[in-house]
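Structure, all two chains, one model.
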Amino acid sequence: MGVTEQGLLERDKDTMTLNMGPQHPSTHGVFRVILEMDGEIVRTAEPDIGFLHTGIEKTAENKRYVHCIPMTDRLDYLSPPQNNLAFCLTVERLLGLQELPARADYLRVIMCELGRIGSHLVWLGTHALDIGAMTVFLYAWREREMILDLNEMISGVRMMTSYIRIGGVAQDATPQWLDGVRKFVDHVPAKIDEYESLLTNNPIWLDRTRGIGTMTKEEAMNWSMSGPVLRAAGLDWDWRKKRPYSRYDDFKFDVPTQDHGDIYDRYLVRVEEMRQSREIIKQALDNLPDGPYKIEDNKVSLPPRETLHTSMESLIHHFKLVSDGVKVPRGSAYVPTEGARGEVGFYIVSDGSNTPYRMKLRAPSFMGIPGMCKMMEGAFIADVVAIIGSIDIVMGEVDR
Amino acid sequence: MTNEAIKEQLEATFGSAITHSEMTSHGELILHVALEQFLAVMEDLKQNKDFDYLSQITGVDYLEQDREPRFDVVYELYSLTKDRHIRIHVGLPEDEPTIPSVYHLWRGADFPERELYDMFGFTVTGHPNMKRLIMPEGWEGHPLLKDYPLTVEEVAFSFNPDHKSELIKTQEDVKADPWA
């Protein structure tokens, strides 16, 4: 890039080139941005990404569909169930599966909403820490710990759950787990109030967030921002409402919106989203149907473990699925879903074999970075960190 | 305006440039557009059909499927104000994969178009800042092409002249022996 040769040592320019990152704690990963500074004001901001590139899209072209699911966890590693869900929904659409058992959908919804709360807690803690409110960070981590414990109980893993599978979920929820979720649901509203009491009317917080990083509705749409950023700018758009998947239309919940589109509004939208997610989990727990937790079609999902010793058919299906995988009919599909950061979806092209011919992730953080750098232009240097935090970027899904 | 009406209007305006169209049961309209008329179709969609949101741009390399043309570029467009969803496929020939930029219509095209160049080597004309995005500058090749070797371990010096090629695994090698 030659920043030092051209910028830092060049004294006869009016502006100064400032390199921020890639190793900078507030970039939430390894993200580099080259700022052209005029005193304290940012003139231009140029993003530089790719430091975490692991070639997941290329790797997926050589792995079976089932093997792709654990890789999707590692894209947006703060809310893995939503990536699993987006991937599985797309494969299911290619397979032509119209409807899943109700219990499978409800368990998926519970996991996704827990993931959303967990992801927003990480965002809240780190965003507040970036701006200087250190206490919230520790409190947010405390509640997130409960979610990670729940993840461990149901899937055996704390973060990369891979719980949602093609045709259902990995295993049924135990009564202990459901009790744990209920405890969490009862516990969390008071804690969200606690975070709000620390931040919402805090004059320092208001000074640092109000009127900063503003983006109008039209700008946000033009720059392909999605999720909370779009809703904070005043557009009522949520894929869970607009194209309900996984029986989201069974639940009553609001889509919070705000009007100004600044950092403070994004904060309000996300905090309210946590409350709404909690409502969805509560309704799902109250109405959780009995029945199978995955589809019965053994060409797609594994037969129950117990039947392997008694049924030849099960053994054959088990062997075929494990050694050969699911064969997905030729075609291409894209299913948009509402992740914690915005629209998450996989565009998958299948050639009729058991590996995706092409898998492309639509990552909200990736699409949001040019818009984020647009917001930085004209802002103070101290606000750059606040703006990065308000988009809630996860570099895993940016670099893929 | 329904998807049906959009399709009819586009077919009336652009005629044979719309080579294929289909409607899914999920409210999506899928159109295959000829490269020559591509930019005009996109401008019409943005200006007259309220498609105000570009969700993503995907490149696909159909090398192993013997398809003509070899490449496909897929645009996912929405109208968030009118609740519409459209997918545009454009075929790109192998010998000259060049596509005009839509950055002037949707600013969100910035990163995905750079990614098209980075991962597939397509030339995107009219993009203001066209350079590699994810791979480092000076990287050779375009990783998502199907003929790009899957693993390459470079050997600076070897007594065995065949050694260097042994370390290169292509996609076919891996497909032929997945347990290796």
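The interface with chain B takes residues 1, 49-50, 53, 55, 57-58, 61-62, 93, 218, 221-226, 230, 235, 237, 242-243, 332, 334-336, 343, 345, 347, 349, 351, 355, 357-358, 360, 362, 366-367, 369-371, 374, 399-400 of chain A (CB under 8 Å).
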